[in-house]
Amino acid sequence: MEIQPVTELIEKAKSAYEAEDYEVAAQWYERAASQYSQQGDGLNAAEMANNRSVSLLRNSNPAAALQSSLGTDQVFAQSGDNRRQAMALGNQAAAYEALHKTEDAIRLYQQSNELLKQINEPSLRVFVLQSLSGLYLRKRHYLNAMAAMQAALDIKPHLSLRERILKKLLQIVFGMLGH
User: Fold this and answer.
1) Sign of the torsion formed by the C-alpha atoms of 88, 90, 94 and 99
2) 21-54: per-residue pLDDT in tens?
3) How confident is the model at residue 177, as a pLDDT?
4) Using an 8 Å Cβ cutoff, are 42 and 75 in contact?
């Protein structure tokens, strides 16, 4: 089998992903990760494993998505890359959520949120907080759900009409609760 440049593998993966052919994208990302690993580039291998995880999740394969992203957060943590560590934790949380492992998903989303808060990444935090809110709702932890949603709406720069109304309602509720 002919060895392709890793940049070519990544371009093919991106093209497949954009064409919503997530299975093929996952295969190309896997090949890119493997090639980076063979070159001793653990950071880029972990990045490709995370991209593969997203593709697998979009292809309704959360178990494989989780498998692909497990441990990548540690690779990023060891290199001091908090942003990619937070994203890896978020990918793992999303896979756990899809697998209906709510407690694991909540724990990882919370870790991801804390890292994103430390490095001031509000756009990514919005997604994480909204996901947390939904999980808290499913667990009937209503105050936690409202607090997570309010935090998400507080940092989101442009709110839709629906979001502005929800934010106002949450402010009223928390005002009545004395928070």
Assistant:
1) positive
2) 999 999 999 999 999 999 999 999 999 999 999 9
3) 81
4) yes
Q: Does the reported pTM lie above 0.90?
A: no
- Token couple for 63: 């178990």
Has residue 179 got a pLDDT over 80? no
Long-range contacts of residues 16-22, Cβ cutoff 8 Å, at least 24 apart: 17/51, 17/55, 17/58, 20/58, 22/55, 22/56, 22/58, 22/59
pLDDT digits (tens, 9 = 90+) for 139-155: 999 989 999 999 999 99
Cα–Cα dist 10/29, whole Å? 6
CA distance 131 to 22: 22
Chain CA centroid to CA 97, Å: 11
Range of the domain at 71: 1-91
Closest CA to 61 of 26, 90, 85: 26
Task: Determine the 3-state secondary structure of 119 from DSSP.
Answer: coil
Q: In angstroms, rounded to a whole number, what is the distance separating the alpha carbons of residues 57 and 60?
A: 5
Q: Please work out, in degrees rounded to the nearest 5, the angle formed at the alpha carbon of residue 87 by the alpha carbons of 80 and 37.
A: 65
Other C-beta atoms closer than 10 Å to the C-beta of 127 total 17
In a domain, 146, yes or no: no
Number of domains in the chain: 1
Round to whole Å and give the CA distance between 161 and 179: 24
